[in-house]
Amino acid sequence: MRPLAVLFFLFLSFSIFAQEQVHYATVLEQQVVTTSEKEANKQIFGTLLNHYAEQNKLLPSEEELSQFKAFGKLSKEIHRKKDELKLAELMKIEATRSLSSEELKQKKILVEMQQQWQKEVEAKDDIHMDKFMNDMANGFVKNWKINKSLYETYGGGIVFQQAGLESADARLAFFEIEKKKGNLEFHSEEFESQFWAMLTPNHNHFSYQEKPEGNPFDVPFWIDAIEKMEEELETLVSKQEQ
């Protein structure tokens, strides 16, 4: 029975795997064959946008990556200082009276964060941490430069997403043109329908701007924020030293 059970399991696994593999599209003569629409969308986006970035020389420079990493370091340090001040405040309160259950909960969270930060400081030269920071910087900077170029080429409205400013209408125009050029070919009507539905901007989104003033991509958000963040960090350090 055991060998039969193993054979049945292997057959079932193979059948499920075979059913899940779908040829969704062809992008720049590369077949998009994967197990889900989400992964297919990701492959189409990555292939065409990376190709666009290479053609238009939009890959991040070392200076741009350094600027973003400086922004990330400042952001992390500000959060750390704020939590250190909050923890110090709770410790003062605890010295004069018993903390409430909510205050104790906050203290526990802050102590755990401090311990985590200490581990990160000790591992700051770790190759994996460096790679993570480089990958994140490269992704954000390249995404910004692509959106900036698309906006300047096709115009249209913009939207603020979690990953930053997005040239929503221009991005849709870009993919429509890529399809007309033959660089994007769909092999499933159902998949194509969801692709365009996912890509079409929601003009009712609270952050959508149909006609933004000037060029909203003139200055990257991290460059614009660095000076204010440096001032905020100085203020927090002064409070901590009092």
TrEMBL record:
Keywords: Signal
Keyword Signal applies: yes
Signal sequence residues: 1-18
The UniProt record lists the keyword Signal: yes
Superkingdom, natural source: Bacteria
Protein name as it appears in the record: Uncharacterized protein
Organism from which the protein derives: Planctobacterium marinum
